[in-house]
Structures are given as C-alpha cells and as structure tokens.
TrEMBL record:
Full-sequence range covered: 463 to 721 of 722
Protein name (database record): EAL domain-containing protein
Residues annotated as signal peptide: none
Domain of life: Bacteria
Domain EAL: from-to ranges: 1-259
C-alpha cells in the first residue's frame, strides 16, 4: 500500500499536523480543554484524516513515533495556551492513545519526559483510550495507565457505550472520564428525544457520577442536544455546535472570549 510505505518519510518531513477541537462545560459553554486530532497533509492526496492512516500506522508500528510526536506537539501547544492565559488555568489537552502505544514499554517514561520538559502539569493532560482497547485488558496492559493516573494524568474512556463492556468492570479501570459515544447524542436530536437513549444516558451518568467519573458527550451538533444532555447531568461536551476541529488559534480566541 502506497500510503503505508510513505508514512515514515512523512513523519520525517513534517507532513503531519494537529487540529484542535474544544471541549466545553455544558453548564456555561466555557472552554474546558481541547482534543488533539492528527491530520496528514499528503503532497499528492491533500489532507487525510486519521481514519485513512492511523490503522496503517498501527499495523506497521509507526504509531509509536507518530503518537510520540502528537503528544509532544499537543503538550507544547497546551503549555503555550497556559502561558498566554496565565490565570485562565484549567485548560486541558486530550490526546488519543492507540492500543499499540499502550503495549509499548517506553510509554510511561516518554510521557513523563514530555511533561517534565514542557513544564505542563500532569493534571492538564488527558489520555483518551477506546473502550474496546481495554475490554478484557489484562493487568499488565492496565499497569502503565495506572501509573499515569497516579501521576495525575486523566484517563478517558473514548467511544464509551459501543464496546459492550461490563459496567462493573469500570471500577477496575484507572479512568476518570467517560466519553459517551456520538451515537447516544444522535438520539437527542429528535423531537422528542429518543426515550430509550435518554434512559441509557441517564443511567450511564448516574453510574459514572457514583464512581466519581466525569461524563463528556461527543458529537453535539444542535442547541437542543446540548440542552437535553445538560438536563441529563452530563458535565462537558464536544461537537460541531461549539466548534469543528481547527487550527490552534481558534482555541486561543475562545479562551480570550471566556476571559
Ligand atoms: O475528527 P477525526 O476524523 O479527526 O477523528 C477520527 C478518529 O481518529 C477519532 O476516533 C480519533 O480518536 C482518532 N485520532 C485522531 N487523532 C489521533 C491520534 O493522534 N492518535 C490516535 N491513535 N488516534 C487519533
Ligand atoms: O476520538 P474520536 O473518535 O471521538 O474523535 C472525534 C471525531 O469526531 C473526529 O473525527 C471529529 O472530527 C468528529 N466530530 C467531532 N464533533 C463532531 C460532531 O459534532 N458531529 C460529528 N458527526 N462528528 C464530530
Ligand atoms: Mn477521542
Ligand atoms: Na470518540
């Protein structure tokens, strides 16, 4: 596959870049943080989304150096925002981790190093791991995550609700945030909202809060969805209604607007 063989040189040539999508507090719409979403500016094919190349990078192992680059770059950017908004303190940066990165023995050391060199506090970093990556995870896969959580890094369970995980299993995982999958948000778009989806979200929020986990909702596209999810007790939200993924400047202006 052409894209696969082009990946290592693309990393060397700096063809990857990151877009940031804000996460907001559902209560007042102020910025809570931003998720880093990697893109590849391919010289022939133009801008490619992660769905086009992350699976290839996973397959070849290039995800390890690529993921390290994303972490460094996103942490550097977050440190910069903090610097520019000295008292606008609580901004957090969310970075996705793939299963191969979790298996990479250098992960904890690299993240510790990146945080130390940047001066960003561990609590400002949130690592997103998909629910499916952790289903039935053995203790040795959870160990690095546990270690990071003890350092103060937040771990979010991404795409939550799609992986059929045993809810009781949540207690065993070192996670502090559930990111509710977009499919639930879609059910809130109808008028009235899908009653089954409402019950499910209500149940998940109540369970999450009783385990002291925060709930982030993905894919919020309308004011009605935001209102419904707020009423159901969700904490933070992400979606086109607030902002599409974009250049780092965009987050900067949102932070200025909040100040
Ligand atoms: O918005 P977008 O099409 O960029 O995201 C598609 C998917 O790609 C999301 O599920 C997201 O988790 C994943 N993704 C985006 N950036 C990264 C990254 O840096 N590393 C990994 N492993 N996945 C990413
Ligand atoms: O990590 P994850 O797969 O959750 O990444 C977020 C993905 O969701 C990215 O592809 C991003 O572009 C996409 N996305 C973000 N907000 C919205 C939204 O409001 N609606 C839809 N359909 N997709 C969204
Ligand atoms: Mn994500
Ligand atoms: Na997701």
């Amino acid at each position: 596959h052409g894209l696969t063989t082009a990946l290592p040189a693309a990393l060397d040539r700096g063809e990857f870049f990151i877009e940031y999508q804000p996460l907001v507090h559902l209560g007042d719409g102020t910025v809570h943080g931003a998720e880093a979403l990697v893109r590849w500016c391919h010289p022939q094919h133009g801008v490619l989304g992660p769905d086009r190349f992350i699976p290839l990078a996973e397959h070849t192992g290039l995800i390890v150096p690529l993921g390290r680059w994303v972490l460094e770059e996103a942490v550097r950017q977050a440190r910069f925002w903090k610097h520019r908004h000295a008292d606008g303190g609580p901004l957090r940066i969310n970075v996705n981790l793939s299963p191969t990165q979790l298996h990479h023995p250098g992960l904890v050391g690299e993240i510790t190093d990146i945080l130390e060199r940047s001066g960003l506090a561990p609590r400002a970093l949130c690592l997103e791991v998909t629910e499916s990556a952790l289903i039935g995870a053995e203790e040795d896969l959870l160990k690095p995550l546990r270690h990071l959580a003890e350092m103060g890094v937040d771990i979010a369970l991404d795409d939550f609700g799609t992986g059929y995980s045993n809810l009781a299993n949540l207690r065993r995982l070192p996670v502090s945030v559930l990111k509710l999958d977009r499919s639930f948000t879609r059910g809130m778009q109808q008028h009235p909202a899908d009653p089954v989806d409402m019950k499910i979200v209500e149940g998940i929020v109540s369970l999450a809060h009783s385990l002291e986990l925060a709930v982030t909702v993905e894919g919020v596209e309308t004011a009605a969805q935001a209102a419904q999810l707020r009423a159901l007790g969700c904490d933070t939200a992400q979606g086109w209604y607030y902002a599409r993924p974009g250049a780092p400047d965009r987050i900067h202006s949102l932070l200025l607007a909040d100040a």
